[in-house]
């Protein structure tokens, strides 16, 4: 894959199959979740009809929504793996962000809204008396066992990815560039919480004879699903808009550019996540005035190659030679970051979170 700059063409070393292993793990995690959710959805639906429980009906809708979501995630993983072409020169990596965003909409539209509807209906007396709660208990316990299997796998995959990125699990979930694995983890976590709420609502309904508890459980399930939908929407919104690469990677790239013997100063540095483990790097550099045009071109090629070798996630590099004292460029950089890159302390190399391109 070629990386072009104002100083010539700078090829980045081939990425090989670095991301394929991670994609395979994500796909298997999604498939496991899909199979579990399909079986659970059927069992919950039957139990909801038998018992007349609002919470069980909400949980059935929840599992149906989750099953649809896994199909959307598989579609996103498939489409995002397509190679770059003339129409999409940076590849199709953001396909998975689009489909993951649809998952957030589905969770809210199919899951949360239905749970709210069932809850309000139970609270206003629109549902009949609960019957044969034993069926519900059995289904909920079996569902918990199946969901736990899927949840443990999703947690293990997310934990592995967090360790690879040298992040805490919570930080990885908040700032991941691979939403499908996080979607499954959050879905399964919400499913387990929802099952506990449904179990509590049905149990309290049986003990007190009041359907209010069943309705409250259904409403709380809707709240949980809404929170998950909002969290997923936020993650994918940032990635679709254009999120800066991991700040640690940006600092490392900034330091590497400054250390190049041909470079006098790093004038501007912009990064953007273009897909899972794919980062676009654009930098303006003030090169030494003694360099010939041929030396400048070779320097651009070498720097881009070194960045690609040191950081496999760097997918494209664009280097532009500029004078550091150009007033228009300095004003532009100052407006983006609040400071000029060559004026600020070394521990701030590479830009703050505002350095998204």
Keywords, separated by commas or semicolons:
single chain, 357 residues, mainly alpha, Alpha-lytic protease prodomain-like, Alpha-Beta Plaits, 2 domains, three-stranded mixed β-sheet, two-stranded antiparallel ribbon, 10 helices, elongated, disordered N terminus, disordered C terminus, membrane
Please explain how this structure is put together.
With 357 residues, the protein is mainly alpha-helical. The protein folds into 2 domains: 18-241, Alpha-lytic protease prodomain-like; 245-348, Alpha-Beta Plaits (2-Layer Sandwich). Helix content is 65%, strand content 10%. The chain has 10 helices and 5 strands, in the order ββααααααααββαβα. The strands form 2 sheets. It has a 3-stranded mixed β-sheet with strand order 3-4-5, sandwiched between helices. A two-stranded antiparallel ribbon has the order 1-2. Strand 4, helix 9 and strand 5 form a beta-alpha-beta unit. Helix 2 packs parallel to helix 7, helix 3 (95-123) runs antiparallel to helix 7 and helix 4 packs across helix 5 (169-175). The longest helix is centred in the first third of the chain and has 34 residues, at 18-51. It is elongated.
């Amino acid at each position: 894959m070629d990386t072009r700059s104002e100083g010539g063409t700078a090829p980045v070393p081939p990425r090989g199959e670095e991301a394929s292993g991670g994609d395979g793990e994500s796909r298997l995690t999604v498939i496991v979740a899909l199979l579990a959710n399909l079986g659970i959805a059927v069992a919950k639906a039957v139990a909801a009809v038998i018992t007349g429980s609002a919470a069980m009906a909400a949980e059935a809708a929840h599992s149906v929504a989750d099953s649809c979501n896994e199909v959307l995630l598989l579609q996103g993983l498939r489409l995002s793996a397509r190679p770059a072409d003339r129409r999409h020169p940076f590849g199709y990596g953001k396909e998975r962000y689009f489909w993951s965003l649809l998952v957030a909409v589905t969770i809210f539209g199919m899951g949360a809204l239905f749970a709210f509807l069932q809850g309000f209906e139970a609270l206003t007396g629109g549902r009949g008396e609960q019957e044969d709660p034993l069926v519900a208990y059995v289904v909920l316990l079996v569902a918990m066992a199946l969901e736990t299997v899927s949840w443990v796998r999703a947690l293990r995959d997310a934990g592995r990815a967090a360790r690879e990125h040298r992040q805490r699990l919570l930080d990885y979930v908040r700032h991941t560039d691979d939403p499908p694995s996080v979607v499954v983890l959050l879905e399964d976590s919400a499913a387990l919480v929802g099952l506990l709420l449904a179990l509590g609502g049905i149990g309290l309904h049986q003990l007190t004879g009041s359907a209010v508890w069943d309705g409250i459980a259904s409403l709380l399930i809707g709240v949980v699903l809404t929170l998950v939908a909002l969290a997923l929407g936020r993650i994918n919104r940032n990635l679709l808009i254009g999120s800066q690469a991991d700040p640690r990677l940006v600092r490392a790239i900034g330091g590497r550019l400054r250390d190049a013997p041909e470079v006098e100063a790093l004038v501007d540095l912009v990064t953007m996540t273009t897909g899972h483990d794919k980062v676009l790097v654009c930098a303006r550099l003030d090169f030494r005035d003694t360099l010939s045009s041929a030396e400048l071109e070779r320097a651009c090629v070498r720097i881009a190659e070194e960045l690609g070798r040191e950081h496999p996630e760097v997918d494209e590099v664009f280097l532009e030679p500029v004078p550091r004292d150009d007033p228009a460029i300095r004003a532009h950089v100052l407006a983006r970051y609040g400071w000029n890159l060559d004026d600020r302390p070394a521990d701030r190399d590479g830009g703050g979170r505002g350095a998204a391109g």
